[in-house]
Design brief:
The complex is a heterodimer of chains A (about 230) and B (about 550).
Chain A: E1 9-15, E2 17-18, E3 21-22, E4 27-31, E5 36-40, H1 47-54, E6 62-67, E7 70-71, H2 77-82, E8 83-86, H3 98-108, H4 114-124, H5 140-152, E9 158-162, H6 170-185, E10 189-193, H7 197-203, E11 206-209, E12 216-218, H8 220-231
Parallel strand pairs in A: 5-10, 5-11, 8-9, 9-10
Antiparallel strand pairs in A: 1-4, 1-6, 2-3, 6-7, 11-12
Helix pairs in contact in A: 3-4, 6-7, 7-8
Chain B: H1 16-31, H2 35-66, H3 81-101, H4 108-114, H5 121-150, H6 157-182, H7 198-228, H8 250-266, H9 273-291, H10 295-304, H11 322-335, H12 338-354, H13 363-380, H14 383-390, H15 393-397, H16 402-409, H17 411-433, H18 441-466, E1 478-480, E2 483-485, H19 495-501, H20 503-511, H21 516-536
Antiparallel strand pairs in B: 1-2
Helix pairs in contact in B: 1-5, 3-5, 3-6, 3-7, 5-6, 5-8, 6-8, 7-12, 9-10, 11-16, 12-13, 12-17, 13-17, 13-18, 13-20, 17-18, 18-19, 18-21, 20-21
Classes of the chains: A alpha/beta (about 230), B mainly alpha (about 550).
């Protein structure tokens, strides 16, 4: 299925950066429904910048970027309804509890059975005991889990995650890998930036090595080897 | 862990308005916003409006009583032109603020939890869009009559109402224009059917720059009026210009404000999430700074958003030691921050003009004017010290002690303070030498003698202000209608030093006479203030000046 369906993301010679200055070499990537693709590379190589462009939060400097088979425009309600993203933004409504944030998100996306859906997601992410707590009172890891839960409590065709393994314990990382595999099996696409060889291995995903000189696509083993070499 | 399935129905996606209401209802349920809360809010508004009205009427009455008689020395043209220029400068300030804050932005929880929803953005943003023209119109309605009263014009109900109407309509129309420009996307082409988001940033910057130029030009106009009206040959001396029959301008301006706001609201779904988040972030920072009374953070928030992220070229700096490196960094920062240069120029011109306003002539009001405009001017030049307090990257690279680094950071403020003193206090002295104003020619010489003493104090005060402790986010936050804000103990830090160390001047103005002994005492106070700053600078009780 995944190789036949039209791609969720197609980037050709994509240049991204700030103030007219590209932060990495041109990126070529294709992600089809049912696939998981990782972006790897050292800190500051431009992985998050590529993700921001895919989410429509940054205008490309050059090249072509099509998401859902059209130009990226996050002003489109359809785009926002089909593309879920989790970056490192940590902001909350001070008067809302953890559960209420998820309820609001689910309601805002027209989820059927809002309350029961939110309860299931909270169980999945181990947040049930924190349901009445305001996010600012959560630990760093719990807040990260809440952000991830917000992406799973809503409908989506494409999931974009920036280093989702950050601040998660090893058990939660294993669970996350299972969730992301299930996303692909359900026919959705997952694009994530990661520094975690374990997560990449567990996903069995290809990766694009983002670099200043040349960006290239690697199979899982080669990508893990590149990550381990970078760590050394 | 089982994979949770989510079922959604696009027909069930709520409107943006409903999402706002839902969020508000949840917050209200927690905060207990029932009928009692509404009644108490209404009562609070009634009391606040009543107090403000009493306060404004009191000021108007006091000012009216203190205006010199017709036979007294004329300081400004007998017209409403200077008041109109000051209102125009205030309108420029509004535009500058609107450009820096968006005007429309979504910060905090809204940016993270509302903007990704597939709801209509118009409904989501409506209150944010409408808030600007409404607040601006209200501000103009209050500011314009206050200014005309402050310039000592004869006060009649018709005149005050005319100014209130024109002020409110002008400010409202300008805010609507800023809103329209924010949603303007000129770049559409066959190769890029999706409008580019880049012009948004440049139009916001343009709005801010236009506002600052307006402020500067208006202030130059006021200063020119103030400096030339003393000359009998000046054409301005005989100029009479009143708002008079021009109050009808309020009509078309109000229509423009309403139509502009209506059209901008319709186009608010064209605003991009990037810009809404970016402006919202600046707005949240600025609001937090205002509510926690942290003017330094406010300056940082508004300045950072206007700094160009990239330069066409880097300066070729020649080595000259650590002190020269820090000094150069401060000078370059000042030169590359148009807002600070505009602030400096406006403070200088305001100083020159305000000391000629009849109600500020002599007395403690003159002292207050000198202190505030001087402190404001010198603070513009202390941006380097403020940034160094937040991120002392350059200072730590230099082989200098914390004290030495901080004292070097005081160089640019000192030069600025001396310039301000020569221009503002010097103009007072020159006027006295010429026989104008309330200062005698003998006293004029003492004003010149005060310039170095004031310069040293103002520079020390600016340095102390720059290195004050930041808001303490670790302490219990203060409850405000905008949410919890961190307590700050540093609002008056810096100004306190300036206030204490210039008390002899205040005393002289209060007594209405300048004597050599008072000038000597002023020098002594200045020396003590600077010595204290140097002695405690960089010490570690918290390494604050």
């Amino acid at each position: 299925m995944s190789t036949q369906a039209p791609p969720l993301i197609r980037a050709t010679g994509l240049r991204v950066g700030y103030s007219g200055e590209a932060v990495c070499a041109p990126v070529d990537l294709t992600l089809r429904p049912g696939q998981v693709l990782a972006l790897i590379g050292p800190n500051g190589s431009g992985k998050s910048t590529v993700l921001r462009a895919v989410l429509g939060l940054l205008e490309p400097l050059a090249g072509t970027l099509k998401v859902l088979n059209r130009d990226v425009d996050e002003r489109s309600a359809d785009f926002r309804g089909r593309v879920a993203g989790v970056l490192d933004d940590d902001a909350w409504f001070p008067g809302l509890t953890t559960r209420e944030h998820l309820l609001l998100t689910a309601a805002g996306h027209g989820v059927v059975g809002t309350s029961s859906t939110v309860d299931r997601i909270m169980t999945t992410f181990g947040l049930t005991s924190q349901s009445q707590v305001v996010p600012s009172a959560l630990s760093s890891g719990q807040r990260r889990r809440l952000l991830l839960a917000a992406a799973f409590v809503r409908p989506r065709d494409l999931l974009v995650l920036d280093e989702p393994e950050q601040r998660l314990d090893s058990a939660m990382r294993t669970s996350l890998a299972g969730l992301l595999r299930a996303e692909a099996e359900a026919g959705r696409g997952v694009l994530l930036a990661t520094h975690d060889p374990y997560l990449l291995t567990a996903l069995g995903a290809d990766a694009v090595l983002v670099d200043e000189v040349r960006c290239r696509r690697l199979r899982t083993q080669a990508a893990v080897a590149a990550m381990n070499a970078e760590a050394r | 862990m089982s994979h949770p399935t989510v079922t959604a129905d696009p027909e069930r996606v709520p409107t943006g308005r409903r999402v706002r209401q839902l969020t508000s209802q949840i917050e209200a349920a927690r905060e207990g916003r029932g009928l009692g809360h509404v009644v108490s809010e209404v009562w609070y508004v009634i009391v606040t409006v009543g107090l403000c009205a009493t306060f404004v009427l009191g000021i108007a009455s006091a000012i009216g009583g203190s205006v010199p008689d017709a036979g007294g020395p004329a300081r400004l043209v007998d017209s409403e032109l200077p008041a109109a220029l000051v209102v125009l400068a205030a309108a420029g300030g509004l535009l500058s603020l609107a450009g820096r804050l968006g005007p429309v932005g979504v910060g905090g929880g809204g940016a993270s939890w509302w903007l990704p929803m597939p709801v209509d953005r118009r409904g989501l943003l409506r209150p944010t869009v409408l808030r600007w023209p409404l607040s601006a119109a209200l501000a103009g309605t209050v500011i314009a009559p206050l200014v005309v009263v402050g310039f000592g014009s004869p006060i009649t109900a018709q005149r005050l109402l005319g100014w209130a109407a024109v002020g409110g309509a002008t400010f409202g129309a300008l805010a609507a224009a800023a809103l329209l420009l924010q949603s303007w996307h000129p770049t559409r082409s066959a190769s890029r059917p999706t409008p580019s988001t880049r012009p948004e940033a440049s139009t916001s910057r343009t709005v801010a720059v236009v506002g600052e130029v307006t402020m500067l030009v208006s202030t130059v106009g006021v200063a020119a009026l103030a400096l030339t009206t003393g000359s009998p040959t000046s054409p301005l001396a005989t100029l009479t210009w009143g708002l008079g029959s021009a109050w009808w301008l309020a009509g078309p301006l109000a229509v423009a404000a309403v139509v502009g706001t209506w059209y901008a609201e319709r186009r608010s779904d064209q605003l991009t999430g990037t810009q809404l988040r970016s402006h919202g972030s600046v707005g949240t920072r600025a609001l937090s700074a205002v509510l926690s009374l942290d003017l330094r953070e406010l300056s940082r928030a508004l300045t950072t958003s206007s700094l160009r992220p990239r330069r066409a070229r880097s300066l070729a700096l020649s080595p000259g030691g650590p002190r020269r490196a820090i000094l150069t960094a401060d000078v370059v920062l000042l030169a590359r921050t148009p807002r600070q240069i505009a602030q400096l120029a406006v403070a200088l011109l305001l100083g020159v003009a305000l000391v000629r306003v009849p109600v500020l002539d002599g007395s403690l009001a003159l002292y207050g004017t000198l202190l505030l405009t001087g402190f404001w001017a010198v603070n513009a030049a202390a941006a380097g010290a403020r940034h160094a307090e937040m991120a002392p990257v350059l200072d730590r690279l230099m082989p200098l002690s914390a004290r030495d680094a901080r004292l070097v950071r005081g160089s640019v403020p000192l030069i600025t303070a001396a310039t301000w003193g020569l221009v503002v206090m010097g103009s007072l002295a020159v006027e006295g030498l010429g026989g104008g104003g309330s200062i005698s020619s003998e006293e004029s010489l003492w004003w010149f003698a005060l310039v170095p003493a004031w310069a040293a104090v103002l520079a020390a005060a600016a340095l102390r202000s720059a290195y004050r402790p930041p808001p303490n986010w670790g302490k219990v936050p203060i409850s405000t209608p905008m949410g919890g804000m961190p307590p700050t103990g540093g609002l008056l830090r810096g100004l306190d030093l300036a206030l204490v160390c210039t008390l002899p001047t205040a005393l002289a103005l209060f007594l209405g006479t300048f004597t050599p002994s008072l000038v000597v005492v002023q020098w002594g106070f200045s020396a003590l203030g600077v010595a204290g700053l140097v002695a405690f600078s960089g010490r570690r009780e918290d390494a604050r000046v």
